[in-house]
Design goal:
CATH superfamily of the largest domain: P-loop containing nucleotide triphosphate hydrolases
Radius of gyration: 30 Å
CATH topology of the largest domain: Rossmann fold
Structural class: alpha+beta
Number of helices: 16
Helix content: 25-40%
CATH class of the largest domain: Alpha Beta
Number of domains: 5
Strand content: 25-35%
Bound molecules: guanosine-5'-diphosphate
Strand order of the largest sheet: 7-8-6-9-10-11
Length: 624
């Protein structure tokens, strides 16, 4: 059955004389009897639904729906899925007007960082910046967040009980700044990989007594990959062994040139312990925000991002939403990820009830029917029914569409270059030792031409971590390793998300593969993995042609998806796919050593007792 791609409003014309349905028909779960003639009823249909769901939406017995489908040449049972056009034809035939629920973009559109495109210049207003704090462990990220928060609450706010809701706002010089409460570049990049672009400014905290450490470099590179402006906060300046100059020098070694040294990165000395320098830091955040000219339109319906969600035993799902544009109000219908609901109550981070939340404001929201995921986008909708069908549609399509968001691989790189999807190859490079980085990086940078270059987002010695994979995913890039290990978490994440990790032992091979990929010459490499052997013990004939080989598995296993090589007297006489693998009467997926089974090959029937079958599968080589 044809399916649709992309959202287009197609509204099949209403057939004159069609039968109408009562208004609440589309909400009725059980099929209802045919109603008396009435005005045509509008029904909102998702892009895909089963015949049963369609009959429920139309409040028409399934058999009627199937009949109309048949009349239009579509054979489908109640559990089969039909697309919007097909469903609309049925609905129109039964006297409805139809409209397609807006398609939810969980596909490639959300895979790229999303900044809201504001449509109406006249309504644009300055909004507070949203700030994330990153840096090496123990350099004082949490202490800094706590200190800023405790020293900048206004009188009214001080009355409330401070709660951690995932983000908070402080006031300074009459301006607000929003801080995200989860420090660290992992959370930052994980959100970005999910398509959420929320941070306007990244504060990189460096402890003055410790200097730049591996995670500081990671944080810097993650912020740079997201093109988010950086402010460096040199922390712990109260400590006797603090050395600010060393930090500044190390920053320049990592391509962060501070203003004092002729660069453009703001650097502020602070102490999260004493509070020294914090007013200066806040002032600089406002200055950077001013340069960035951050604006949003409070006059529109709210959109934004889910920061966190919890299940409260008394109050049900409680989510913190960060409004990115528009104004969120009590009683608004919100759709967030694959859940929706009406805003029953909103609280700020001091536990005060609020009635509205403007751009860059985080609020705790009660009323969603489920728990959205952090990083999910939310938006306000005008119609509850539309919100429901959209969510149902989203749930149905989530799996399918997420798989359309394919990460870049070296093998499909050229195709993407050709189609204009990729203009530079983003690389995260991990090596055995520091000394390997420079030769590899400089060789990589020499590859390509003016249209396509390699960009090294992050290069560091050490194992390939989840954070590296996340950075590659968020930036549409790949992870290249040289003589290093892949941590299990990283491998799992890469497998699930389809990100590419390639690990090499020879620098030349790494460079050569990237070069070939840029030129479209890289062929996927497969290896054969022998899975097991089976001995043919008896033959059965089915009909005139088909031979079933009754076999005993002598080692390993035989899988339904294996390819079979047939050997006779140790010589290969055929290679074929399995058409049928059975244990007794049942079709099975695999058969283990010591068991008997019946194997039917797709084409080769000239099998004899005593032949040997070797089962193997082809596996793509992932070098690591
Ligand atoms: P995080 O891992 O980056 O979040 O670091 P924490 O905020 O947990 O801080 C790590 C340690 O450094 C804690 O023991 C803090 O008390 C201490 N610390 C943080 N900031 C300062 C500071 O400005 N001065 C001093 N002396 N200690 C600090």
């Amino acid at each position: 059955m044809p399916t649709r791609s992309g959202y287009q409003q197609r509204r099949p014309a209403r057939r004159p004389g069609g039968r109408g349905r009562p208004t609440d028909a589309s909400r009725t779960a059980a099929p209802a009897p045919v109603a008396a003639p009435a005005a045509p009823q509008m029904v909102v249909l998702p892009s895909h639904l089963t015949v049963r769901e369609l009959s429920e939406l139309l409040a028409t017995p399934t058999v009627e729906v199937i009949k109309v489908l048949l009349k239009n040449g579509v054979f489908a049972n109640v559990n089969q899925t039909v697309d919007y056009e097909t469903a609309a034809v049925v609905a129109v035939d039964l006297g409805f007007e139809t409209e397609e629920a807006p398609r939810v973009l969980v596909g490639p559109e959300t895979a790229t960082p999303k900044r809201f495109k504001e449509e109406d210049g006249a309504h644009m207003r300055h909004r507070p910046p949203v700030v994330t704090i990153m840096g090496h462990v123990d350099h004082g990220k949490t202490s800094l967040l706590d200190k800023i928060r405790s020293t900048n609450v206004t009188e009214r706010e001080a009355g409330g009980i401070t709660q951690h809701i995932g983000a908070y706002q402080v006031q300074t010089d009459g301006h607000r700044i929003t801080f995200l409460d989860t420090p660290g570049h992992e959370a930052f990049t994980a959100m970005r990989a999910r398509g959420a672009h929320v941070t306007d400014i990244a504060i990189i905290v460096v402890a003055a007594d410790d200097g730049i450490m591996p995670q500081t470099v990671e944080a810097i590179n993650h912020a740079k990959a997201a093109a988010v402006p950086i402010i460096v906060a040199i922390n712990k300046i109260d400590r006797p062994d603090s050395n600010q100059d060393r930090v500044k020098r190390q920053l320049s070694e990592n391509n962060v040139l501070i203003e004092e040294w002729g660069g453009d990165t703001v650097c502020v000395a602070v102490s999260a312990k004493t509070g020294d320098g914090i007013p200066d830091l806040l002032e600089h955040i406002l200055l950077v925000a001013e340069v960035e000219d951050l604006k949003a339109n409070p006059a529109r319906r709210a959109e934004g991002m889910v920061i966190e969600a919890q299940l409260d035993p008394q109050r049900g799902p409680v989510s913190t939403l960060l409004v990115q544009t528009g104004t969120l109000r009590l009683a608004d219908i919100v759709i967030a990820g694959s859940t929706y609901g009406r805003v029953r109550a909103m609280y700020d981070e001091h536990g005060h009830q609020v009635k509205r939340a403007e751009p860059a404001t985080p609020v705790k929201v009660l009323g969603l029917s489920g728990m959205p995921q952090p990083g999910d986008l939310f938006s306000v909708m005008t119609d509850e029914r539309l919100a429901r069908t959209t969510v149902e549609d989203r749930q149905r399509n989530a799996q399918r569409e997420i798989h359309q968001v394919k990460a870049v691989t070296l093998e499909d790189l050229f195709e993407r270059i050709q189609s204009g999807q990729v203009k530079e190859l983003n690389v995260v490079l991990k090596t055995d030792v520091q000394g390997s980085i420079d030769p590899i990086r400089s060789s990589l940078l020499q590859l390509g031409d003016e249209n396509l270059r390699v960009k090294v987002l992050h290069a560091a010695p050490g194992g390939i971590t989840e954070s590296d994979v996340m950075l590659a995913l968020a930036s549409n890039g790949i992870v290249l390793g040289f003589s290093t290990r892949v941590e299990p978490g990283a491998r799992r994440l890469a497998d699930v998300e389809g990100a590419e990790i390639r690990n090499y032992d020879v620098i030349y091979h790494l460079i050569e593969d990237v070069e070939k990929a840029l030129k479209g010459l890289l062929e996927p490499t497969f290896v054969e993995v022998v899975e097991g052997h089976a001995e043919v013990r008896q033959l059965f004939k089915i009909g005139r042609k088909v031979i079933v080989a009754g076999c005993g598995v002598t080692d390993g296993k035989i899988s339904r998806s294996s390819v079979i090589r047939v050997f006779r007297n140790k010589k290969q006489i055929a290679e074929d796919k399995i058409a049928n693998l059975k244990r007794f009467k049942d079709e099975v997926r695999d058969v283990a050593t010591g068991f008997e089974c019946g194997i039917t090959l797709e084409n080769f029937m000239d099998i004899q007792e005593g032949d040997m079958m070797e089962a193997y599968r082809k596996e793509r080589v992932v070098v690591d």
